[in-house]
Hints:
Keywords: Dipeptidase, Hydrolase, Metal-binding, Metalloprotease, Protease, Zinc. By secondary structure, this protein is an alpha+beta fold. It has ten helices and 26 strands.
Amino acid sequence: MYKQQIEEYFSKHKKELLEDIGKLIAVQSDRSEAKPGMPFGKGPAKALELALNIAKEKGLITKNYENYVGTVDVNDKETELGILAHLDVVPAGTGWTTNPYEMVEKSGKIYGRGTADDKGPAVAALYALKAVKDLNIPLSKNVRLILGTDEECGSNDIAYYFSKEKVPPKTFSPDGEYPVINIEKGSFRSSFTGRYQKNESLPRIISINGGLKQNMVPKLCEAVIEGFTLLEVEDYIKPVAKQLKVKYELLESNQEVHITIEGNSAHGSTPELGNNPITAMLTILSGMSFAKSEGFNRICSVNKLYPHGDFYGEALGINMSDDESGKLTIGLNIFEYNEESLKGSFDCRSPLCANDDNVVSVMEMNMIREGLFLEIEKMNPPHYVDKNSELVQNLLKVYEDYTGKEGQCLAIGGGTYVHHIEGGVCFGCSMPGTDNHMHSSDEFAVIDELMLSAKMFTQIIIDICA
Length: 466
């Protein structure tokens, strides 16, 4: 079974593994403007180059697919197992107590953007390939580590790669949690708009801006209003903010009051774990005595359809669930309002029972009634793999052997890298109960969990490819 050899190997290479994670964390690799030869910007391309150089230095076989994807092979035989990880990250955002692009180790954890999602797991997988090679374990087939650079912004990298290479017979991604994720909810990410006549009657709302990424519950939302004194706004907001459990900051300038609402960020798949400052801001502004106008009416309409704390689409008429995949969730994660138009972008994660008729059509109808217009797009279907498949059973066995815990299959709201890969599942790297603050400030990975993951990945490679 090689378990003792694997344990000894990673006890010797722990420091080296963590150092290589630190090198990748230092590269800011959120997507930026495309450049020649860099389809997702400088950062993702730089991270990919670094990762492939690390792999090459360890004697592994590498290939760069035009800076969309890089691959790492342990041999030149037919690939039986694919491990799919990504090197791009979401923007750091605010609220960090450490530098997000400098890995900090403390109390058995490493902090930094990408430590958990997904640079840390990617390096753990890379070292699993290295372990098999260094331990001279004979393989009859190849394992390929596939390193992508656009998972956070639509996975165009993987679409490009699989247009050139075939999908391995077995694929897993260390882009989630243990034991095994075999169901991923579908998704519906789109936007809505509203237009209205400019109205300068006072008091009025001049602008609202909140959110950076559609799949990320934001931390901040800002608004500029006119026609109220700072004291009037303070007297109104203080008890409401307390009720909504958000922080606020007020600034008076040129007869305008600038309002900043601070909530709690979270991954778009779990909006209930955050506290959305956009919906809090809409609740606050809708309750104030602004002059009557089309624009203010639209603000009240958005607040009606996306009330603060409604994570399940009840006000939109799309609240639903099923036993296998759980509840539908939705979050309004980007919002812009000016004197003549507004635009909101949401992230909806849908269970197996959801479809275009009972989600998209219902949302469109209810928005039209409120003077808002939904940008119609097809839903991204859910992903389901039979829990009795050979790969799933193999992963669960290794999990039980190495952790001593019962293995089971999970359903999640997040879409991982294997969402569109037939038979692909998610395996690791977070243990049950660990909240890594993914997509939030102070993201971290538990060192022992990463090392355990590397060991399990090594065992899986042996079991499938020997």
